[in-house]
Write a structure and sequence with these properties.
Layout (H helix, E strand, L loop, with lengths): L6 H15 L5 H8 L3 H9 L6 H11 L3 H14 L1 E5 H8 L2 H14 L2 E6 L10 H8 L12 H14 L9 E7 L1 H4 L5 H14 L5 E6 L13 E3 L4 E4 L3 E5 L2 H17 L3 H19 L1
Parallel strand pairs: 2-3, 3-4
Antiparallel strand pairs: 1-7, 2-5, 5-6, 6-7
Helix pairs in contact: 1-5, 2-3, 4-5, 6-7, 7-9, 8-9, 11-13
Length: 287
């Protein structure tokens, strides 16, 4: 899946084109010199592919760039690896809020592993349709960017389709939540009880790992926001925007944070007992 183009990546791509044009008449000529496929050079020059540090070094050597120019490329690449886009921008970029959900589903399918932390909300991959609708109809949700009730119904449907990734044996799903996620209510108590029943049903899937950091345990990581780890990048969401981190150092850091959360979380029979306790407390509120 090609990386989304951004102003930072576009600036890097323009600089690569400028350096190449000073030494080679075409991208094809540079590709032949490097022994690369021509489409690889084209994607880098258009900003549709993220260059590695090795790519930049080889490019700089081929075009006779100075050490200062190579350092400039490294700096531009570092900036391009941090992408921040509002949801309104993402909706425009992908052709609407419903299509944006399809983009997320394709990103899920392209990753061999999906690891997510949510401090106080059930992740989309585990949500029931009723819970998802309650989330998405909050005033701060898609409606704040002009999404209609009819489109929200379509988004709920796409989110349910996205969950097919849970049943793919060749993909690994790891999800950790704070206990607050089990207790935070966005709609009716009955909807939250149904959501907990859904979590109980999913605890038996061999390749879907679900953990919850209970209130009784020390939280090892600041529960400031959620984050989602794919194979080579991290996504972090706020109420209004999404940040993507491509830097290997950032990915490594978040992998470490996620490992710490997994160690603090209860799973298996302990998780089932916690889910049953919370569900029983909610049912008592209905009496």
């Amino acid at each position: 899946m090609p990386a989304p183009n951004t102003p930072q990546r576009a600036l890097l791509a323009r600089r690569l084109r400028e350096l190449r044009a000073a030494a080679f008449t075409s991208g094809s000529a540079l590709a032949r010199h490097l022994g690369w496929h021509q489409t690889r050079v084209s994607k880098l020059e258009q900003g549709n592919q993220r260059p590695t540090d090795d790519d930049l070094r080889e490019w700089a050597e081929a075009v006779g760039a100075s050490p200062a120019q190579l350092d400039e490329l490294y700096e531009l690449a570092s900036a391009a690896r941090i992408e921040y886009a509002t949801f309104q921008h993402r909706y425009r970029q992908h052709g609407g809020a419903v299509a944006e959900q399809e983009t997320t589903a394709r990103e899920d399918a392209a990753s061999s592993r999906i690891a997510e932390f949510q401090p106080a909300m059930i992740p989309g991959l585990l949500q029931t349709a009723a819970y998802a609708r309650d989330i998405l109809t909050r005033p701060c949700g898609p409606a704040s960017n002009g999404v209609t009730p009819g489109e929200i119904d379509q988004i709920v449907g796409k989110r349910m389709e996205r969950q097919q990734v849970l049943y793919q044996p060749d993909q690994q799903i790891q999800i950790v939540m704070g206990e607050a996620a089990l207790r935070t209510r966005f709609g009716t108590t009955e909807t939250l009880i149904g959501q907990l029943d859904r979590l109980l049903a999913l605890t038996g899937y061999a390749h879907v790992e679900i953990g919850v950091v209970p209130f009784a345990a020390a939280m090892p990581v600041f529960p400031l926001t959620n984050f989602l780890l794919y194979d080579d990048h991290v996504l972090i969401e706020s109420i209004t925007a999404q940040q993507r981190l491509d830097s290997p150092d950032d990915v490594k850091s978040y992998e470490s944070y996620f490992d710490q959360l997994r160690e603090a979380a209860v799973t298996g029979p302990e998780l089932e007992a916690l889910l049953l306790r919370v569900s029983a407390n909610l049912r008592d509120q209905l009496v």
